[in-house]
Amino acid sequence: MRKLLLATAALIVLAAMPALAPAQEKSVKIGFISTFSGPTAVIGNDMRNAFELALDHIGRKMGGLPVEVIYENDEIRPDVGRQKTEKLIQSDRVNFVVGYIWSNVLLASLKPVVDSQTFLISANAGPHQIAGKLCSPFFFSTSWQNDQTPQAMGLYMNQKGVKTLYLIGPNYAAGKDMLGGVASTYKGKIVGEDLTRWPDQLDFSTELTKVRNTNPEAVFVFYPGAAGVQFLNQYAQSGLRGKIPLYTAFTIDSLSLPLQKELALGVPGAQQWVNDLPNDANKKFVADFRARHKTYPSFYGAQSYDAVNLINSAVTAVNGNLADKDGLRNAMRKADYASVRGPYKYGNNHFPIQNFYLQDVVKDPEGNLTLKTVSTIVENSQDRYAKACPMKW
Amino acid sequence: MLLFIEQCLNGLQLGLLLFLVAAGLTLIFGIMDMVNLAHGSLYMIGAYFAATFVAWTGSFVAGAVLAVGATLLVGMLLEVIAIRPLYGRDHLDQVLGTFGLILFFNELVRIVWGPAGLRVPLPDWLKTSVPILPGLQYPTYRIAIIVTALAVALFLYILVMRTRLGMLIRAGASNREMAGALGVNIKLLYTLVFGLGAALAGLAGLMQAPILTVQIGMGENILILAFVIIIIGGIGSIRGAFVAALLVGLIDTIGRAFLPDLLRLFLSYRTASAVTPAISSMMIYLVMAIVLVVRPQGLFQVSGK
Amino acid sequence: MKGFVTPRNVVVAALLIFLALVPVYVAITGDGFLMTLFTRILILAMAATSLNLILGYGGMVSFGHAAYLGIGGYAIGIFAYEGVGSGFIQWPVAIAASALFALGVGALSLRTRGLYFIMITLAFAQLVYYFGVGLDRYGGDDGLQIYQRSQFIDPINLSNRTQFYYWCLVLLLVSIYLIWRIVNSRFGMAIQGARSNDRRMQAIGFPTYRYRLACFVIAGVICGLAGALLANQTEFVSPAMMHWTRSGDLIVMVVLGGMASTFGPLIGAVTLLVLEETLPLLIELVATPFVGAAASRAAEYWQIVLGPLFLLVVLFARGGINGLLESMRRD
Asked: C-alpha angle with apex A113: A112 to A114, nearest 5 degrees?
């Protein structure tokens, strides 16, 4: 019986534990939500590594205040992401929530953050809803709106004179945004389109057979993470590689490259940041990241690195007075920090107006595969939903 | 027409691969009366072993053989440690227990191999494609999968129907007490059968490895499909699993291949693009529901089950 | 009176008192997350309780119970999206839709047994799941934001978090009571009889198919109601809430807590969800003296502890935690 009471008491203590963490005054508290389990933990780890590096670069202090970060795992599930976000807001009382790889997790988590007048900095996901109707004075992006990157790719394909195109992408929100984005700028004829099951696609053989039969001039794909490896792999196995050129967005990055290897050679992609962009901030970021982790950082990492510096610029501007929300917002709107992608501006919806570059896969001096900037596809590109956002400033 | 034949081959290949996973599952259920959710984990482990051994030996075939052997051992070990105590328990207890094993294996794989996933490169002789009909080239590796899986299916048939071990298996399935009384070492038999099922799953995993990425959680997606197959086929029936696997493979592939164009005849381009993936995902479940409504014990009902 | 003070009853009583006091704790400390967490636990416990009626007592293992969470949730979400905020419209529709779906699924599925039943219920749930993914107007896979919780007349205000918490608690307790009444009625006895021997019950003259179907529909309705609550709590619906893994979670809750026991599903839901929340912290706490700062990374592998824990519960606690508590009585 006594054992039982003890057990019950232990259970109650356990339940109360998150609440017992002492509330620290006078620090900048940042909650970081990303995926730290399952196969996409690779992305989450890269974001965290870059985030930590950025904090070390600024001495882990912002506007004179020490910085405290709490990492939470969304398990790629919208409901889990939502719950972790609520924990960060209600229990940890963070000043900023950063991260979010996935559009659906971000959409599920947006409301509790902005309702509590906490700033949310998306370091990756950019669903069109938040760029348009759902835009908020408490939301900023250090990445892009989902459509922007494929739109740039569409422009590039126009430049290349591609007349017929086949689109393939996963059937989830970002996948639809991506294919829609290409279609909005691409001037040629779209001769086929497949949205595949996600995330449990087993095999692309059906779609690739269709591609071979349609025989388009080019294929555009969007497959983030491991699916991108699978796609390139199967594209080569089906004998299409070298016959029909492939154009991509978010399919080849420094995380998937070690798996894609030579299959990625000669496959162009569009991105707002590439690891060889020649600005000083980027050189320092990439060099120090490589020194510490022996790998190239990915664009996910770059966006997380920028998130720290964006927040730092704002906290410094208000001299550490975190209660000055308007001051923080006004400072962030200026994007007055050394972004690793080079200078950019914010649109009225708090999404970046930025350049997009064409990237290609090359070998670095040590023989590792890496990404290289080829040219600028488009300068100062703004997403097409900004007009739908009622916010003006 | 060529397109249709090629898509059928794709479906056949997918179906045969699913059969390898489903065969082990249905054997284990039919003989030990055991719901083993961790079967998908063995598929995953087979793929990871393949990645390691192929890199280690430098040969795809040698790596594959080692991986099958290693998965067989892991399967037998797992049976002795964790599965054996679950025999004779309520199915739900087995579900909960083996669900726990899934969580365990996913984390174990993450600790051992890291979260990034691995790729298994194909040797050059499997990277090509061969003409099988005038105007129709088909990837060599996929033909190799079809041939291997068919050979395994034949092997299973001979094993269960024509050998002494198969006789024991069938005896154990229909009446374990009687088989035990006759001096059959039921414990050893069960361990062997479980190991065989594991090896089949591992074989499927390693054959998928060069096509897909080897990654954590790859077993869960295929597990559900494998369950669908053994249900459609009739639990415990290898023949049923074979027919159902081909059915599922073909329906899934044909659906994905031709449904979009079909729907675009009736709906606007955008709407059709949006609803097709949903409908093609539904198809196999729809088939399962229909089969069960018409035949509540699957297509090939095993007598006495 | 002595017979009433059993370990199980003490735990249940302590748990209920704790649940009743959560908002008080929150009011004192100002940390609202505990209430958010427990609101969710209460709602999922309600879903698990409804599953227990068919799974535990009726022997009908539904592997598609999360579909009702989705149906109930989407009923709220779609109405809210179309500008109908009144709970007096939303909730009856949520209930009716769940009942209709349960009636259809039940009528078709109850002819099958065992693993076949498990999988046919999964099939129907998957159909609904993919239907949700295909609902482009309502966000598809992205899900749907709900801007306003269901509107009722004063003084019922679901936007008040404390009030909402108590509504969830009340509805949970009502569900538990209702199911307890059902199970101990003639109808419930027939259901339980049919679990162990359907033919005998039919021979005695019970129309077991209709009884079991009625039972299936009742469980669906309660779970649909839980779905309506869940949508109101998270102010968000998405197909993810009816993913098959969620159905699996519900089964785990029931089996973990104790099948065919009145409070088992509640105990199971609390245990599972609290463990999910605290296991990483616990691992960090235990590991810190040994590995230092790396402990927080080690905590990310908490499922390697949770998995074998399930296996141990199955092996050493027949009848789940409830069974374990009842067996303690004999020491």
From this structure: 100
